Every structure is written in structure tokens, then in C-alpha cells.
Amino acid sequence: MTSSRYKLRIWGARGTGPTPAADHLVYGGNTSCVAVELDGGEHVILDCGSGLVALGTALAERKDAAPGHLHLFISHYHFDHIEGLPRFLPLYDPNSKITIYGADTNGRSVREILESYICPPYFPVSLASVPSRIDYRNVEASASYAIGDVTVRSLPVNHPDGCRSFRLDHGKRSIVYATDHEHGDEPIDRELFDFVRGADYLIYDATYQPAEYHELRRGWGHSTWYAAVQLAVAAGVGTLVLFHHHPEHTDDELTAVLEVARNEFPSTEIAREGLELDL
Length: 279
Ligand SMILES: [Zn+2]
Ligand SMILES: [Zn+2]
Known about the structure:
The chain is α/β, with parallel strands linked by helices and 279 residues long.
């Protein structure tokens, strides 16, 4: 069966760290995680921030469904992109089949990095001893994977310690997930432009207001809603989705950012937990 209409759901849209504050509930305080379920029980999950915990619970509660194959793609290993993994219930289910994709970084494989993070004394359980079946893949710079009828491709972006952007293509539909990227490195920006070109959705790092970025945060590896709009317009993107919200930005501030961004590019959305995008 082809051309089914899949929904990519946002489970966490916050950057840097979880923010369970009363004035962060509209867009949510959980860190980066987006996921889509494909036909045949395959799941493509991008990043394992704290939003992954609720996804894992939702999967564990579906007693009726056959155990699927969970493909976890990790953009990079900063805490806000892996901190949901220790509490991801499918790890503890012997029927789970999990593949974790991440780039070798600082001379260590994805497996070495995650097994040295999820173990005592940081967490009471060792990732190396969980009962689910896990295998690991190193994500080369321009890797491409066929998962069900979706293709997942990767592209390195500009971030301290490295980071991968991912593009999902399903028939003629496409979504690019490009977070933890700082604009301004011309060769990387050019490659990202080609990677993003014509996508139906661009989920993009909009951590900073332009003034915050220019005054204080150059070189920290993040971007602005304004750079997001410029890329979306130039690359002919269908809809821009502002993502990786700054931990101090309240719901009111994010709503104001959305309004300003829409003045520049009307087809702009802002990521919130529960938002679904057609793939
Ligand atoms: Zn991040
Ligand atoms: Zn990061």
C-alpha cells in the first residue's frame, strides 16, 4: 500500500532543557522529539528529548497493536536530545525491536556514547542490560535509509559537537527536521538550502529572537525565526514550523514571535506538543 497519509506528531518542541512552567503549557515544556508511525508498525522517531517519554507511554498502552520496529534517529548527543531515552518504556519490553541511529562523535560510536550515559550512577539501569532488542547504526554524513515507504536522509549542520538534520520523503511529500543549527556558515547553509528545497514542511531551530542572537548568542549553535523565514522563502518551503523554543520564552512571547514571523511568511506555524504534520 502506498501514498497513505502519515502524521508526524510533535512530542517535544523545547530546546536546552525541559521547562514545566505554568506559562509554558500552550507550546509545551518537553524537549525535542517528533515521530511518525508508518504502515506495518514501523515508527520513525527523530530525537529522544523528554517528549519521548510520553510517546513511549502511549506505545506501551496500545496492548492491541503488534510490537513494531522503532527507529530512533538522534541528531546529536546534547542532553535535550537524549534525556528521554532512559524513561522510554519500550526499552524495557522484550518484544520491542529498536534501532538507534546516531553519528560517531569525538571518536565514539552511538552505542558507546549512549551506554556510557544510561548507566549507574547516572541512572539505576544500564542501557546495555535492558531486555529489548536494540541495534545501532552509525549515521554517515549523507546517509539514506529506506524505512517502509519513507526515505530518511541526513545532513550535517552547524552546531557545537556536530549535529544532523533529517529529511523524510514519502511519495511526493517531505518534511525536513533541522534543529540545533546556526546559520551563517556559507558552505553548510548552501547544503542545507539544497536539502530543504521544496519541502512541504521545514521544522527549524528558532531558539533566539534576532536581537538576542546578535547581541549575545553568536556561535552558540542556534538560529532565529528570521533566519528560518529567509531559508523557508528562498527554498520554496510549503510551511515553516518554528522549533526548539528557548527555555525562557513564555507562551505569550512565542505567540508574539509567530505573529511577527507570519507577517514575513504567512505559512508559518510554531511547534507545540500534539501538533501533527501531514507526511
Ligand atoms: Zn538542542
Ligand atoms: Zn545541541
